[in-house]
Amino acid sequence: MARRRLSRATSLTALAGTAVVVAAVFAVWAALSWVGAITDDGLNTAEARDEALRQGRERMVELTTMDHDDVEAGLRRWLSATTGALHAELANADPTTLTTPEQAGTTVTGRVLHAALSEFDADHGRAVLLAAVEVTSVRAGAEPGYARNRYRARLRHTDEGWKVETFETVAVGGPE
């Protein structure tokens, strides 16, 4: 009988020891996995991609919005949202074109409905954003007008964040 108790005690001790070893191995594996995750380049790329998408959405709103009461502020927003040739084109725009929104008395506001990056290169600071934007036009004394447009914007990462380098409308629908 004493032999049987000794065997049972030995078995319980062995089982407890095995459980401790398994727990220690799991703890080491979990710690190494955690360290690997926080230093993972894939995680950094995903965060950079999310930031490019977030800022790209903001730039689309800025470039599709203009208040006829403050066209100069709208132009400043456009300039701060752009870079490269598009920025130069806006900076050198004919001043008479800036009076068009004022004369029309129309305020245009863009709202991004959907957006995604179709290309992303974090190493070179480039991305292509595709966005569906609802543009609301409001003119005093008239019903608001709504238009849904799709845009493609080439984004470039600058010292000031992601900015639009090129901006174009994407055709909707199939061949006619």
UniProtKB/TrEMBL annotation:
It is found in: Membrane. The chain crosses the membrane at residues 12-35. It comes from the Bacteria. GO terms for cellular component: membrane. Keywords: Membrane, Transmembrane, Transmembrane helix. This is Mce-associated membrane protein. It comes from Saccharomonospora glauca K62. The lineage of its organism: Bacteria, Bacillati, Actinomycetota, Actinomycetes, Pseudonocardiales.
